[in-house]
Design brief:
alpha/beta, Metallo-beta-lactamase, Chain A, Arc Repressor Mutant, subunit A, 2 domains, seven-stranded mixed β-sheet, about 20% strand, globular
């Protein structure tokens, strides 16, 4: 079995992907369920990993999406077509997917690859999703995404946190789409999760977190720092999206990455909001930081590559 697959119970598996592909939860009982489907480009690898858990794509009965960003819904269209399964996501994200709004889902704003898909069920805050003998409480956790949810297993204290809680970090805050109050709503979401009796956390990216309360507290401290100095939030957005762009489009020469950013909706707007519209300086300073930190490197042919696992 691939080492990225972590058995939780006999019929529940966590699959740790990279930073371009969101993680998965696979349930092989009834209903046979897949939580999130990763990035569209890597659907074949996603299928292989799920099959190693004992679940063929054709046998999936339910796809649950924690939110509608490209790294979490990429396999939806193909997997639903092949299995005929139901697709469930929060009512806000379902509305925008049904409206084929690729800005609310970020795909158009960040120039990401994704495909629209049929939806079947609107998840609502407080709803209980039953998988076999396990009862998962659906919690609306906006901030990173307007329709983002977490799933809390009331029987065990396990939390599927999506991009609300990683190991000391969380998904990028895109205030142009999510609203200028996005950090406040993220803080409220984190405080709500902090009131639960959380044991292990299964995040949207990264490894499982054994100390759930500590992870939530670390994320609250990071939000506080963003509110204290919004430019930190802007730098975080620019750096993360540059990394995602390289994972999606790279390797790229510096000029190619600059052209993608400067011609996009997101980079000029973000630079205007946080850095006085200084496009070239913002691009240079943040790319140089990523190079200094080893998150980006030269591939030996003058092209930039992201060193993070996709």
């Amino acid at each position: 079995m691939d080492p990225r697959i972590i058995p939780i119970t006999d019929d529940l598996f966590f699959i740790q992907r990279g930073w371009l592909n969101g993680n998965h939860l696979v349930f092989t009982g009834k209903p046979r369920t897949l939580v999130d489907t990763a990035y569209i480009r890597d659907a074949a690898e996603t299928e292989s990993l799920i099959a190693q858990c004992g679940l063929a794509i054709e046998d999936v009965e339910l796809i649950v999406n924690t939110h509608a960003h490209c790294d979490h819904i990429g396999g939806n269209a193909e997997f639903q077509r092949r299995s005929g399964c139901q697709v469930a996501l929060h009512q806000v994200d379902r509305y925008f997917v049904d409206q084929r709004n690729d800005w609310a889902t970020w795909w158009g704003y960040y120039q990401q690859d994704a495909a629209f898909f049929p939806t079947h069920h609107s998840l609502t805050d407080g709803e209980v999703l039953t998988l076999g003998q396990m009862n998962w409480l659906v919690l609306h956790t906006p901030g990173h995404g307007m329709g983002q949810i977490a799933l809390y297993c009331m029987d065990t204290g396990w939390l599927v946190s999506a991009d609300t809680v990683w190991d000391g970090d969380f998904g990028v805050l895109t205030t142009r789409i999510e609203g200028l109050d996005a950090p406040f709503r993220l803080r409220e979401s984190l405080e709500r999760l902090g009131r639960l009796r959380v044991q292990a956390i299964y995040p949207g990216h990264g490894a499982p977190l054994a100390d759930g309360p500590a992870a939530i507290e670390a994320c609250l401290a990071r939000v506080a720092a963003f509110l204290e100095d919004p430019r930190r939030m802007g730098r975080d957005q620019v750096r993360k999206i540059l990394l995602y762009t390289l994972m999606m489009r790279g390797p790229l020469h510096r000029e190619g990455l600059w052209q993608l950013g400067s011609a996009s909706p997101w980079f000029p707007e973000t630079t205007e909001l946080y850095f006085g519209g200084k496009l070239e300086a913002t691009f240079r300073d943040n790319l140089d930081y990523l190079l200094e930190q080893g998150l980006v490197k030269d591939d030996g042919e003058g092209r930039l590559v992201c060193t993070l696992s996709a």
